[in-house]
Amino acid sequence: MRSIKSVFDGFKDFLMRGNVIDLAVAVVMGTAFTAVVTSFTKGIVNPLLAVFGSTNELGLGVQLIADKPATFIALGPIITAFIDFFMVAAVLYFVLMLPMKSLKNKFGTTKAAEPTETELLIEIRDLLAKQQGLSTEQTEALSKERATESA
Asked: 3-class SS at 63?
């Protein structure tokens, strides 16, 4: 029988799994929150934009040819769509992504720092020297000689 700790460790690993969980939660929450944002913009933002529009029923925009409603460029819906997008993005970031990042920092594992290029080259040099039966001191001396010759 598995211990309780191993069950919780498995659950933690499941929760902390990469982008798949983030994406699934973001899609569900984004879909649910879009209805709230759309209602907000239709009920509050659109009337405020209409204040800045002309007195006609077309709303905020530019009429290219007078007496032809088909030539009206509506700016209100474009502004409303941008406001919708930024509100949904802000809520998803502050409600989902920041807490998830905080949890990952708190419970996640830290990766060991990767070696630099110089450290890798030194390690390769030492391994080759070991295969040839040279000591580390002899290898370093050879490296210094070659460095001065090439300079």
From this structure: strand
Lookup result for tokens 């210094």: 144
Contact (CB, 8 A) for 126 and 136: yes
- For residue range 16-58, what is the model confidence (pLDDT) as tens digits? 666 666 677 777 777 877 788 888 888 887 787 777 766 666 6
Distance, in Å, from the CA atom of 28 to the CA atom of 31, rounded to the nearest integer, reads 5
Helix (H) or strand (E) run with residue 73 in it: strand 72-74
Sequence spans of domains, the chain: 4-107, 117-150
pLDDT tens for 87-142 read 877 877 888 778 878 877 777 666 667 888 888 888 888 888 888 887 777 777 77
Domain 4-107 has CATH 3.40.50.720: no
**Residue 85 in contact with residue 116, Cβ under 8 Å?**
no
Q: What is the pTM of this model?
A: 0.46
